[in-house]
Write a structure and sequence with these properties.
With 132 residues, the protein is an alpha/beta fold. Helix content is 41%, strand content 17%. A four-stranded parallel sheet has the order 1-4-3-2, with helices on both faces. InterPro entries: Barstar (IPR000468), Barstar-like_sf (IPR035905).
Length: 132
Amino acid sequence: MINVFAEAPQGIQAAPHDPRIIAAGYQVAVREVDLSHVRDKEGLMLAFLRGLALTENFGRNWDALYDVLTDPNARPARFALVLCGYDLFRRRSRQLGAELERLLLDAQRNAAQQGRSLWLLTEEPDTDPRMR
């Protein structure tokens, strides 16, 4: 498997095994957002609030999320966002997932235009089939 951090970010990609350890070698800051229990926009915004360690004054809307992801003062120049449970979230909330994907890809393009890197990585939980 090609190391995602050795290349420029390219859309939403599968996270490597142990993304934090690999990212450290490439001086990439990593934050995880757990989407596995998200069912609505409010839950989605709360997941980002927690995952990105935002303050309670975070606007909890699309514009605020975009601003947080693209603000050079808020994020390191080399930043990876690991979306845990992304595939399950997308299956469960198709429209919300499509809106999130558009926003994330726009933020990634914006980062590239600023000479910054925003990796968007998905990581699915190792689930026991009996727990589904």
